[in-house]
Each structure stands twice: as structure tokens, then as C-alpha cells.
Amino acid sequence: MQESIEELHTPQVAMVGRPAPEFDVETAIAGGEFSRAKLSDYKGKWLVLFFYPLDFTFVCPTEITEFSKRSEEFKALDAEVLGGSTDSVHSHKAWLKELGDLNYPLFSDMSRDMSWDYGVLLPDEGIALRGTFIIDPDGVLRYALYHDLGVGRSVTETLRVLQALQTGELCPVAWEKGEDTLGKA
Predict the structure, then answer these.
(1) How many other C-beta atoms are found inside a 10 Å radius of the C-beta of residue 129?
(2) How far apart are CA 141 and CA 53, in angstroms?
(3) Mean pLDDT, residues 3-22 taken together
(4) pLDDT by residue (tens digit) across 32-73?
(5) Residue 60 known to be catalytic
(6) What is the pTM assigned to this prediction?
(7) In a domain, 134, yes or no
(8) Residue 39 domain flag
């Protein structure tokens, strides 16, 4: 009898305003190399962490390549990007041959622990929903967004939210960088 992830792994629970769940995962990086990524690697920087369902699908490449094209905008905000799925690093490496090198690593969550901890795992399917998380330089989860599988996320909106969070102030609906805020949070 195969045990479920619920039986094998006690989840850390991703909650905005609390420390982000720890992770230590293998990654595929530019040039077809492999590396590792841990939450502690991003201490002192903002982290935009995103999950997508599967390699070699239709919506995912649009998001993945858009995050890469806009990586300099994230870097200008002292933020790193880390994306991934429940696929293996070998699947990521093969897919990168089609997508081209990215300006950030793709993590592999084959254990499904990270997806479970961040609340994006669809256990019956073994894949992740589209989830976007912003973690502050102190490791606190500041933003969480979950999408249905068929709808791509907006990298522009992710950048806008990151900029708003970095003000430390109350930002009204549709606030854009350079506009007035509503004061201190």
C-alpha cells in the first residue's frame, strides 16, 4: 500500500505574515547544469517564488519566459526569481533546450513536499497549481496568489505588488510606482 504525501510529510503551512516554509531543492540552471536552492540562499533579498503545473505544456512557457525576459526589472528591485514544478531536473534540462536558457533557476519538487508546504499541490494529480509567492529579505511570506491550471499569471502584476510591498506603506488599488500611497502600514 502506497502512503500518501499527507502520511509521509507534515507540512509547514504557508501563511502571509509568517516565516515562509523552508525548502532545499535541486535546480536546473542555464547551460544545462544542476544546482541546489534553499530558502536561506535568499536571505537579505526579496524572492519571487512561483510554481507551475508541468514542463512541456502550453501556458507554462509563456510565464516562464516572461519572468526571464523581465529578470533585470526584478534584479533592480533587489529580488531574485525561482520557478519550478513537480517535474525532475532532467525534464527541466530537456525543456530548456526548447525554451532557451533562463535568467533564473527552475526547481524540481519531485517529493511534492515544497508544493504541499506552499499549498499548491493537487495530490490526486501530483502536480502544482500556479502559485506565486513573494518572500521578504527576512524570510517572511508577504504575498500568495493561487491560480487555476488554465490561466497564466501576470508578471507585470507581480512586479507591481513587489514594488508596493517594498514601500512599506498602504498602497491603494491599482497603485503604481511613483504614485502617492495612503501612508504608513
Answers:
(1) 18
(2) 21
(3) 74
(4) 899 999 999 999 999 999 999 999 988 888 899 999 999 999
(5) yes
(6) 0.91
(7) yes
(8) yes
